Protein 1
Amino acid sequence: MPQRFPPPDLPAAAPPCAGWVVHCDGSALPNPGRMGLGAVLVAPDGTRHALSQDTHLHGCNNEAELRALMAALAALRQHGAASAQVYCDNSILVEQLGGAPARAPARLAALFAQARALLGGFEHVRLGWVPRHRNAQADALARAALGLAPKPPAGSHPKGQKRRKR
């Protein structure tokens, strides 16, 4: 039986499996609010595909992240992918789907079950957590789906200038 999920103690920096590489993210504005989904899918040949969708639904940030993952997995299936390394910056999602599942929040249990079913349709999937700053492109796509500009880089002043210490 092929490995579908990494063991819980697998570090996020583990080498990716052969196949596609995906970074996905979701936004809910306000939280809870309208949900936007974003993902960057990179094929084994290096071809990049972007996903940016407004769900026209209301939900929390965790639901948006979960829906972004499911949209990315559906896009992978449309491209005929059999294996993928999937990254997201939501630790709850990775803990729920990447290791021994803990009890999912009741309002999201059905979505987690759908996501597990989608993950199970691949020969090999490895799910990993990345810090938010390494998921900026997927975040920008999720925000763009809602008509919002990308977030400024961490530590930057809104006008691009450093703040002076007083």
Protein 2
Amino acid sequence: MLYHLFKPLEDVVGGFRLFQYITFRAAFAAILAFLVATVVGPGIVESLRKRKLAGFSPTGHGGVDAQRSSKSGVPTMGGVILLIGVALSSFLFVRLDIPQTWIVLVSFLLFGALGAVDDWRKLTRPGGQGMSERQKLFGQLAIAGAAIAGFYALGCAQDGTPWLRGASMKPNPYPVHVVRQGEGWETLAQRYLGEAARGRELASFNDRLDVLGQPEPLSVGRVVRLPGAPGDHHRADLQVPFVKRFCLDLGLWFIPLGILVIVGASNAVNLTDGLDGLAIGITGTVAAAFVLVGYLVGRTDFARDLYLFHVAEGGELAIIASALFGGSLGFLWFNAHPATVFMGDTGSLSIGGILGTLAVALRHELTLLLAGGLFVAEALSVIWQRTYFKATKRAAIRRGDPAPTGRRWFKVAPFHHHYQALGLHENKVTVRFWIVSVICVVAALAALKMR
């Protein structure tokens, strides 16, 4: 909003030109989100406490539940703090004439609203029954489906590609040439640019000019990058780490994959939210990764150098990720051990929703898989625990045990509670998980270069 407000005034007040720069707006989006969260946080916490909106879900393990029982009076639904900080900061600093930013922000708010309904039911209904798993999943699918349909429609309209198409392999989006014997800059310029005189231009494009500004000699076997961004915007292409020689156009498969990413991320964050500061700390590290990813893919020069798909609005999406980073720090102010407020489903569903939506919009679903490795591990621990229990119970029935029951792989799932059950203090578990999360983010960012 501020971008549109100050742009006509740039010639009057020179300082307003700063709002043209992604880096400036991203930095201040993070700062504002942090400040808003810390300013409105105390009032929201006190309001939740007065309404007695507090409670926790038992894990079924006596030792873990005994530790958690001391938190029975801590209010939940604190995700409202995050929603206000991130949404307000994003709307102020992003360009609102880009449809993708609206899709991301509206999805974020809708996931937050879905989580708030679930939290409210748990805290106000007799027996603490919230939405059923089926109801919650239907809501997640509806929001994710609408977001993905919007992305797909915009992509088809921009690329001019048919709506109904299957998956297909596409050539390397950034053409290169391997130098053969006798080839020089003029030869390559004549072949690919149609004019031998453009040899110096081609050398400059490859950063191969000497101190005098003359093209450096080419050696046999050297890889020369060719200019000219492809006309394809890669709106439905899958960005695969470690691969640069081809890309995969998902076609209609973009829709189910995108829905899976968003819904999966939403549930994974929801399962991770179980210890003071755990989920929000990991969110901060993953959000920081997507600030960098969005900035890189939004720049044609960086995207080409790293063989990444260029996303024209990537910089604006980086601003939203930056606001999420700042908002995460602001919420951690209250959620760090000992927590004075829990995020509840209001926060966890919205965080997962916005991370998944950002990953799809930036065409970096697999980067989210790597950077959010702990979110993935937490979700897999629950799936494996249930699968292992059911399998061992069926085996006991087949053996004819008098009282057949299943066994558990972890003492408690999600597996952050497993370490609590082993005797580790929850603060130690949280900090160690943060450390692992940083390593996951570093690995994901390294994968951007390793192609």
